[in-house]
UniProtKB/TrEMBL annotation:
This is LD-carboxypeptidase. Residues 15-131 form the LD-carboxypeptidase N-terminal domain. Residues 179-296 form the LD-carboxypeptidase C-terminal domain. It comes from the Bacteria. Keywords: Carboxypeptidase, Hydrolase, Protease, Serine protease.
């Protein structure tokens, strides 16, 4: 599949902020929006950003309508999600995929937004971005993350070696090299959509995976699920990001650590695999254009992800 590219942003362009999933927990939207304005962009805020319906950012219909409207608006050149949480899968049947496909735009988010990334790739055939969100900019985004967003909005699909944050040190799990479109995102979202019409089709891809706040046995359950559901069969390589606040990290009797679980599945799958890339729920979150062709190099002395033209 040849996924289309959205246009890069220019100073003064408009970014829409929408909330496909959880409601605003605190008054963090203003700080994140202020950062986007500091970068020289105009910001249009969707109705969902200030809406509440239990733990959701307004009704399913409102959240879907915000996304449809942002894609339909010719003044909007990019869309950045407010936050993840839960709710994106609920709106998948309500999105206007023909409209969205006709107006490809830079679409940025991670976590629960993985469900939207998958359908935009497979039904609308353009490249969404696994990257930081508005609430993350207000809370814990590192200088690395802010620099990645600044660079990515202006150069969304440029070839490069994915840079590592200072605290992250990529390592090879299974040696080898593989090339294909970058796919995936949040492990739980990939797992829960298996068996639905919105499941990721991973044939020929390089699968990126990250997660937050899960115990090792829970990660084991999800990795086992995506394996048994066939997601790994056609994958050419695996790129593991950060497993933020996933425990345990230290070994003990009757326990496996998170790293031991990841290493065991990588070895079992036998595909070229690296870990420790700078994307996920922590402070460091890279700009990853999903659907772009990448080369995964898993060498004894080098572990890197290279975005190709």
């Amino acid at each position: 599949m040849d996924y289309r590219c959205a246009a890069p942003l220019n100073p003064g362009d408009t970014i829409a902020v929408v909330a496909p999933s959880a409601a605003l927990a605190e008054d963090d939207a203003a700080q994140g929006i202020a950062f986007l304005k500091e970068l020289g962009y105009q910001v249009a805020v969707g109705k969902s950003v200030s809406a509440h319906d239990g733990y959701l950012a307004g009704s399913d219909e409102l959240r879907a309508a915000d996304i449809n409207a942002a894609f339909a608006d010719d003044q909007v050149k990019a869309i950045i999600c407010l936050r993840g949480g839960y709710g994106a899968t609920r709106i998948l049947p309500l999105l206007d995929y023909d409209l969205i496909a006709a107006h490809p735009k830079i679409f940025v988010g991670f976590s629960d937004i993985t469900a939207l990334h998958t359908v935009f790739l497979q039904r609308c055939h353009f490249r969404p971005i696994h990257g930081t969100m508005v609430m993350s900019l207000a809370r814990k985004a590192s200088a690395y993350t802010r620099d990645e967003l600044r660079w990515g909005l202006a150069h969304p699909y440029d070839p490069r070696v994915l840079p590592s944050a200072p605290e992250m040190h990529p390592e090879t799990l299974v040696p080898g090299s593989a090339t294909g479109p970058l796919l995936g995102g949040n492990l739980m979202l990939l797992s829960v959509t298996m068996g639905t019409p919105y499941a990721l089709q991973s044939e020929g891809g390089i699968l990126c995976l990250e997660e937050v706040g899960e115990d090792a046995y829970s990660l084991d359950r999800m990795l086992c699920h995506i394996e048994q559901a066939g997601l790994i069969d056609g994958v050419k390589g695996i790129a593991f990001g950060e497993f933020y606040r996933c425990n345990p990290t230290e070994g003990s009797t009757y326990e496996w650590t998170v790293n031991e679980v990841i290493q065991a599945y990588a070895k079992k799958w036998g595909k070229p695999a690296i870990k420790g890339l700078s994307f996920g729920h922590g402070a460091d979150n890279a700009w990853l254009p999903l659907g772009q062709k990448v080369r995964l190099d898993a060498k004894p002395d080098r572990a890197e992800l290279v975005f190709l033209p």
